Amino acid sequence: MTVEFFVQQFKGSNDKKAIFEKHIKSKQYTKYEDKIFDCKKIVKSTCWREIGNEQEFWSDSPSRFYFFSLTFLSRYTDIEFDQTPENILRDYNLFAGCGAFDYFMEIVFNDKWLSREYNEYQVLLNMCVDDEVKNNQSLIKFFKGIGNSIQNIFNEVINDPRVAESLGKNNLK
Questions:
Q1: What is the pLDDT of residues 105-152, one digit of tens each?
Q2: Own/partner pairs, 14-18, CB within 8 angstroms, 24+ separation
Q3: N or C terminus: fewer CB in 10 A for the chain?
Q4: What stretches of the chain adopt beta strand conformation (E)?
Q5: How far apart are CA 20 and CA 15, in angstroms?
Q6: Model pTM?
Q7: Pseudo-torsion of CA 72, 77, 80, 81, nearest 10°?
Q8: Are residues 80 and 144 in the same domain?
Q9: Helical axes 100-110 vs 85-97, angle rounded to 10°
Q10: Using the 8-state DSSP alphabet, how is residue 24 labeled?
Q11: Model confidence at 68, in pLDDT bands (50, 70, 90)?
């Protein structure tokens, strides 16, 4: 079911719990290795950014929350978020904006099985983030990162036409 169709049903219903219960997939345990796969995918997309041709460690916690929320919703409901970059945020905002996300989380925390699944997912995600930090933030990488940052700033300054113009005027004096 698309987010748009679900939101229409959700907004038009007096029994919002019944709407959600109709769309919660059978309460089946998600295998441990599937949770780890999901968590590593979230970490990969929220702990790294590309600068030029290189990957740089860069933590993006708001995006991590967003991707975790979408992953959990996708695993435990039949609500389908459009996965294209231009539409996925639109769908998330539509879903959260009408109060459906908050209502879903209330259901999760009041349901023993969903709550346990959510908590396990959250613990695993935190472990994967911790591992990523420990495995990629050694002292050598730290100093290399500082060197790269200084080089990037230097390149930006040198390539700024205002700086080049200023340097040219100073050399004429």
A1: 999 999 999 999 999 999 999 999 999 888 877 655 666 667 777 777
A2: 16/103, 17/103, 17/107
A3: C
A4: 48-51, 54-57
A5: 9
A6: 0.74
A7: -30
A8: no
A9: 70
A10: B
A11: very high
34: three-class secondary structure by DSSP: helix
Start-to-end CA span in the chain (Å): 71
Helix (H, G, I), strand (E, B) or coil at 2: strand
Same structural domain for residues 159 and 97? no
Same domain, 128 and 81: yes
Is residue 36 a contact partner of residue 126, using CB atoms and an 8 Å limit?
no
Q: Cα separation of 140 and 142, whole Å?
A: 5
User: Rounded to 10 degrees, what is the CA torsion of 91, 92, 97, 100?
Assistant: 100
**Do 75 and 8 reside in the same domain of the chain?**
yes
- Is residue 117 located within the same domain as residue 68? yes
Examine the domain organization and report whether 90 and 120 are in the same domain.
yes
Instruction: Verify that 143 and 156 share a domain, yes or no.
Output: yes
Give the residue numbers spanning the domain of 70. 3-137
Task: Let me know: does 95 contact 79? Beta carbons within 8 Å.
Answer: yes
Is it the case that residue 169 has pLDDT exceeding 60? Answer: no
Q: Examine the domain organization and report whether 81 and 151 are in the same domain.
A: no
Looking at the structure of the chain, the number of domains it has is: 2
Arithmetic mean of pLDDT, 73-87: 90
